Amino acid sequence: MKSLIRLIPFLRPYRYQIGLGFLSFFIARFFEVSTYYLVSVGIDTIEILGGSADSVLAPFSVGQVATVLIFSVMLRFVFVVHARRQVRRVGQLVAYDLRQRLYMTVQQQGSDFFSKMGVGDIMTRAIQDISLIQRLVAFGMIQIVIMVYAPLFGVSAMMYKSPALTFMIMPILPAIFYYGWWMSRQLAVTSVAVQENLSALSSLVQENLGGIRTVQAQAQEDNEIRRFGGVNENYAQAFYSQSRVNSLMSAWMPFQASAAQLLIIVYGGSQVLAGEISIGDLVFFLACLNMLLQPIRMAGMFVTLVQRGAVATNRLHEIFDAVPEIRDSPSDNTPATIRGEFEFKHLTYSYPRAAEPVLKDITLQIKAGESIAIVGRVGAGKSTLLKLFTRMADTPRGCLFLDGHDICDYPLSQVRSQIAQVLQDPFLFGEPLRNNISYDDPARALDLVWDSAEAAALRETIEAFPEQMDTLIGERGVTLSGGQKQRATLARGLIRNAPVLILDDCFSSVDTETEEHILNRLKTMRRERTTIIVSHRVSTLRHADRIIVLDEGRIIEAGSHAELLRQGGAYAELERAQTPGADQAAQRRAQVTAPL
Amino acid sequence: MSRRTQASQVRAETDHGMFDAELSGTVLNLQLLRRIVGWLEPFKIRLAFSAVLILAASCVTVMMEIIISRVLVDYIIVGEMSSHMPDLGMIALTRWVESYLGIEPIFAAGLLFLLAMCVTAVAGHAHRLTLISAIVNALRDLRQDLFAHLERRPSSFYDKVPTGRIMTRVTNDVEALYEMLRGMGALVGEFVPFLVALTIMLSTSVKLTLILLLLVPVVGIATHFFRNATQEIFRLVRNTVSSLNQNLQENLSGMQVVQLNDRQARNLDEYTQINQRNLGYENRSIDLSTAYGAFNDSLAAVGLGIIIWYGGGAVVQDEMSLGGVILFTRFMNMLFTPVVMLGEQLNVLFRAMASGERIFQALDWDEQIHEPTHPVELPARLRGKVEFRDLTFGYSPAVPILKGVSVVIQPGEKLAIVGPTGSGKSTMIRLLGRFYDFDRDRIFLDDIDLNDLRSQDVRSRIGVVLQDFHIFSGSILDNIILGNPKISRERAIEAAKTVNAHEFIERLPEGYDSILVERGANLSQGQRQLLAFARVLAADPEILILDEATASIDTETERLIQDGLRKLMTGRTSILIAHRLQTIQEADQVLVLHHGVVRELGTHAALLALKGLYYTLHELQFQDVSIDE
């Protein structure tokens, strides 16, 4: 219930629409009862005309009654359509708002949030939970209306006609309602069983197909098929049980309605015979009874709808409540354009909930226009260090300065639009190549896009595609190779022409020759501007003004290629290992059966 | 040999895109229906019962209305018994009950009504149960056949077709068929009472019935228009919804790129536009469906007006009784429901047609691994020599993954394969497991060409531990035995003891009978590895293939794993895709694979001395878990 209260702010903007809808429903009900009433008047008129009571003159002709009746039907139509439309549209509007809210929220989140909540999880919430709430708002409100109005109108209309007969039927109604509610609860219980069995079946299939290689490698097909047979049978059983309850309900509901009808037939019939009510009244009673019983089926469905909606609301708020990890709190005195000078002062950084810091006591100055290369083993802290440059991770204050100001004082969007970073994992969107390369600004001139593709040694590849820059990438389009993807993401970084460019090990799938070519172009392009590059290859590293060697979160060596070689430390070791044919003698000594 | 090559090429070109082609199912495919009926066949007696029961239930339901209108109103209240109006003998029956039990006519009518309502309830319930049980069982069988068929498709199939699509066939598509069959059943359940009521109405007043029937085409036309209009809207809604989802999904997957490019605002803009378009279509579809639903209700009420109008005149001229008029008002709803329902069911039917096509396409998909016509029988125990001879292979012929790979592994030897991702390591072991078709005279097991062996025979001699090896839901013991009747509980426990798995298994609350949840999530990575070792050891294959896990494991477990692995490899030819330095050091040969080519082959020491690719890899990648012995 508490979670449903959290839904109220989403409904509030539409309170007038909802109120109007409820009013229309009310008026529509009135005309519905009028219709039944007019039928009864018509029947009484026919009875009088039929001659069983010649002495009395009929007040209206059947034509008059029928005309008013059809008129009332039309009015009901107008109001019902209006009412349902209002309320169901509110459902869609709420869904719209929820989607917007979700989209905005997730865009502000950082890696910690996404490590706790996977893409699949967020997608499920965006798809299923929003749709559950939409259904709760639209159909739940309609059901409330039915549950309130139908008995209200039914009972008052019956009281108006014959209080005695109404009182006769009243006692059995609570029983019918209670039983209807109980039955539909049963139905909810069995449908939970069906859901559970279905998800057991789905997860078995998923598990099985996911491990199909193991299954086949172990020759387990027959076993698995047998196992599936068991789950399949259970599901069929559960389904059948649910259908049985469902069918029982389909049998019981009319049966109980018939029981009430039976009372009307016997008691009401006697009243007619006694001349207390007319035949028309009897028919009116039968019609009102139907209306009265309408909400019975709904009660159980309503409870399910509310329960699911409450869970969905909670799940969505788990996203809405997430506080962005990176605080955007710009101060006014930072320059509008950055030059690209960084200073790390004794920076120690650990991820939230991690015991060990990833970066320990980093002190480093990067001059504007300098090119810096970073090298280190897997897990040395390279990627974390890069995250700090673009504030993808939040540094403590007073540890990292950009052009002399604490990096936390810059607006986030400035940091990210003036520092370009190419990630290790080449991610491309399912869009045309052009949009992928000029991702930060889709309106950029095509020439510039081609230039950056050229700089990333991708021109020839793109020219080979029939649709060139308009080639669609991804599942529905062209699948690029790992190296092509890396070069495309590189082009995406280069095109921004940013004061600072960061390349995170983004040549791993590019062959050395092409890499050399790209790096040479880069040197001219990035002259006088800060470039930071992470790589494992000495052939890449050596181009940099300065090389930083990271190990276990600390800087262990820093200097130019030549300086580090002279030092004879870790970098020198790496250089030796990667230089082909460095140790000819060893090669000859080794007993190697290398094929040619 | 050329025939084989050709065959494998044809297979490689099988268009797997077809498998997820959007099947429209816009036409009523009778052949498809006939195939579905094939699965219903075994339950035909149930279906026949169901048909009889619905007829009985419908007749009794109609009788209840006759009791109200003809017996109560005409006979009891008005006291008129005009013989030309049908009453299905109800009036006579009431009089018989009256005199037999000596009660008031109104109570006799009540008694009959009570009886009829009991029969309706029971017969209706029995009808639904028999029908549903036939459908549920038929579809259970269909689903079973479908799963069994898919389970035996080869790896080449599973490489190309995303498992999500295959899953949909087994789950959603079969569900769609259920909806359709159930809908057809429900339609019959509406049409039979409709026909019975129609018969009664016709014999009461032909003219009034015909006038009212004129409304049916109106409902029909409205339904038709509604369907056409909504089909287009629904399509647009579906499209915008899937654009919304796709946009969000992509944005989520590439969130880092989005944030690094400061694209949030622009992306939100794009999303908002789709969201607004979607809202527009949703609203249009709401407008249509609310109008249509209310229109049908209202038309039925208009019918009431017509009945009063016409009935009034007819009663005066003594063509109809008052009860007859009331009977018509009571039947009014029964007249339209089937038409409306037919409209609804058509959508379900078309959807189901597409699902049916997908199901049968899957059932007809006969892609499989080539099996020899005259297979060579393997001896009871292999020596365990494995040879790759100038093997060139690609999943599609144009893109070779392995190029001229040759290596001989002598019985009992250990070969470690190293190389960067994508170098073809996994492909080598997949081919050895006969998961794909390849040319003759390329891979040999004890000098027998693998193409001359049944894939099942090959696989039963090779124990495979993949990186993310599969834990089946079930007990620990089930996971070691894997349904092999030759492995006793004792042998399974023995195997677990040998590979150091016994200790952690014993510590579990129910030991070997502990149930593993999905994918063994309640075990640690290391424990799962040990369990996989036990599984292989229990099966005792001559050849072991291991794709070593890359994940880091605590030192103690690591020691157990290394020790278990050593015991597992004893007396077995082993091929290891190795990531651990220790594993590689202990191998008899190390094969360095790069872009599908064997770049270096020799012992660890020899390759290190070579200072080539292996040396570089060694420096950068191998995890030295440095276990002190």
Characteristics:
heterodimer; A: 596 residues; alpha/beta; ABC transporter transmembrane region fold; Rossmann fold; 9% strand; B: 629 residues; 3 domains; 6-stranded mixed sheet; 4-stranded antiparallel sheet; 64% helix; elongated; disordered N terminus
Structure description:
The complex is a heterodimer of chains A (596) and B (629). By secondary structure, chain A is an alpha/beta fold. In chain A, 63% of the residues lie in helices and 9% in strands. Chain A folds into three domains: 1-162 and 297-324, ABC transporter transmembrane region fold (Up-down Bundle); 163-276, Helix Hairpins (Orthogonal Bundle), CATH 1.10.287; 342-578, P-loop containing nucleotide triphosphate hydrolases (Rossmann fold, 3-Layer(aba) Sandwich), CATH 3.40.50. Chain A has helices spanning 2-5, 8-11, 15-49, 62-107, 111-116, 119-161, 163-169, 172-210, 212-217, 221-273, 279-320, 382-389, 412-418, 433-437, 446-455, 459-464, 482-494, 512-525, 538-541, 561-567, 570-578, 584-589; strands spanning 342-349, 359-366, 371-376, 400-402, 405-406, 419-422, 500-504, 530-534, 546-551, 554-559. In chain A, strands 6-7-8-3-9-10 form a six-stranded mixed β-sheet, with helices on both faces. In chain A, a hairpin with a 2-residue loop joins strand 9 and strand 10 (554-559). Chain B has 629 residues and is of the alpha/beta class. Chain B has three domains: 30-204 and 352-366, ABC transporter type 1, transmembrane domain (ABC transporter transmembrane region fold, Up-down Bundle), CATH 1.20.1560.10; 206-319; 386-620, P-loop containing nucleotide triphosphate hydrolases (Rossmann fold, 3-Layer(aba) Sandwich), CATH 3.40.50.300. Chain B is 64% helix and 9% strand. Chain B is built from 22 helices and twelve strands. In chain B, helix 3 (44-78) runs antiparallel to helix 5. The longest helix of chain B is centred in the middle third of the chain and has 53 residues, at 264-316. Classes of the chains: A alpha/beta (596), B alpha/beta (629). The interface between A and B is large, with 146 and 140 residues.
